[in-house]
Specification:
It is built from 8 helices and 7 strands; from the N terminus they run βαβαβαβαβααβααβ. With 250 residues, it is of the alpha/beta class. The protein has one domain (9-241): NAD(P)-binding Rossmann-like Domain (Rossmann fold, 3-Layer(aba) Sandwich). The chain has a 7-stranded parallel sheet with strand order 3-2-1-4-5-6-7, sandwiched between helices. Strand 2 (33-38), helix 2 and strand 3 form a beta-alpha-beta unit. Helix 1 packs parallel to helix 2 (42-54), helix 3 packs parallel to helix 4 (106-134) and helix 4 (106-134) packs parallel to helix 6 (155-175). It is globular and about 50 Å long. The two termini are 31 Å apart.
């Protein structure tokens, strides 16, 4: 495949595992240098960086919470110090938990919104000046299927991911004059390893794909790669669904 992102620099949050890892590796495959962002698991992030470097591309690791503006600013500064620019920001960091609304307390509600929405806010603010200087900046936010279909026991997650779609459209409108496109990729029914104490999300049982199979993290990453490349220069403000037909957007 072509190295359509050669010379570009991408920050991917939540890149230590699953979809975030696949995005980081796929953008590196396209030629981009990658800042591998992770909240705390340095070993996972380092492993992703080693994979990228083994492929011949450049990688840097930053661990820190996207909820903390100082940590996010340090991430952006580390990227600029190492690579001299930021062209792509993928806001992937998120928490996905399940609890009935009746039993949910405010701290549990706030924890999800803090990471998914506030984290995207902090990361975008920290990278905005560099993205403007890029001349062809790309922001890709990672959404969620349940934000479009609804789901029980996920009021906090559904709300946060629905907010990401609104955030995408607002930024696409505001940043178009700077040559920055802003889009949202919405994964659905993607097979990823879960912690031993975490059951499969309940809404996965109620939704079925038209293709008859679950997706892979690489299927989501392929959509992100396209949106970051020159072929997507005329696409902005969109929610692109990668879900095997489990949900039809309109």
């Amino acid at each position: 495949m072509s190295k359509e992102l050669a010379g570009k620099v991408a920050i991917v949050t939540g890149a230590g595992r699953n979809i975030g890892r696949a995005i980081a590796l796929t953008l590196a495959e396209a030629g981009a240098a990658i800042l591998v962002g992770a909240r705390s698991n340095r070993a996972e992030a380092d492993a992703v960086a080693r994979e990228i470097e083994a492929s011949g591309e450049k990688a840097l690791v930053h661990t820190g919470d996207v909820v903390d503006p100082k940590s996010v600013q340090a991430m952006a500064e580390a990227t600029l110090n190492a690579f001299g620019r930021i062209d792509i920001l993928v806001n992937n960091a998120a928490l996905r938990r399940e609890k009935s609304f009746a039993e949910m307390d405010y701290a549990e509600w706030r924890a999800i919104l803090d990471v998914t929405l506030d984290g995207a806010f902090h990361c975008t603010k920290a990278c905005l000046a560099a993205l403007r200087q890029s001349g062809s900046g790309r922001i890709v936010n990672i959404g969620g299927l349940s934000a479009h279909t609804g789901a029980g026991n996920r009021a906090h997650v559904v709300t946060a991911k629905a907010g990401i779609v609104g955030f995408t459209r607002a930024l696409a409108t505001e940043l178009a004059a700077d040559g920055i496109t802003v889009n949202c990729v919405v994964p659905g029914l993607i097979s990823t390893p879960l912690p031993k104490d975490q059951p499969e999300p309940a809404h996965h049982v109620t939704h079925q794909t038209r293709t008859g199979e679950r997706g892979k993290p690489e299927d989501v990453a392929a959509a992100v790669r396209f949106l970051c490349g020159p072929g997507a220069r005329y696409i902005t403000g969109q929610a692109i669904h990668a879900n095997g037909g489990a949900y039809f957007s309109g």
